[in-house]
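Entry 14. Structure prediction run on the chain below.
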Amino acid sequence: MSIFSKIAAGEIPSYKCAEDDHFYAFLDINPLTKGHTLVIPKREVDYFFDLSDEEISAMQVFAKHVAVAIKKAIPCVKVGQAVIGLEVRHAHIHLVPMQREGDLNFSNKKLSLTAEEMRQTADAILASFNA
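Output returned:
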C-alpha cells in the first residue's frame, strides 16, 4: 500500500483540502507555493495513464473543482497543474497556485510552513470546495 493510499484511508494524517467517493486532495508537505495540493485517486494505481479513460476524466473534473477552490482561498493569478509521478508510486496531480510560470518549477526551493499555516490553508481550501 502506497503512502498516498494510507493518507486517503486516514491511516496517515494529512491536510485535507477536498474529498469525494473516488478522489482525495491534500496539501503537499513540501510545497512549491502556499496551497500546493495533491489530487489522488483512492484506488491505488502507480502510473497516471494506467487509469481508465473514465477515471482520468473524473479525476480531471475533480481536480478542476479543487483548483477553483484553491484560487478562491489563495491569492494567485492561476493554478498550475503538473503530472510527474516519479516520487511516489501512486498516480497524482499537483495543483500549484502561481503568481508567475516559474512557480511551477519543481527545482525551486520548497517552502517551510508551520503546521498551523498548513492547517489554515487546508481549511480555507476545503471551505471553498464545500461552498
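The CA atoms of residues 46 and 90 lie 4 Å apart.
Filed with the rest of this week's runs.
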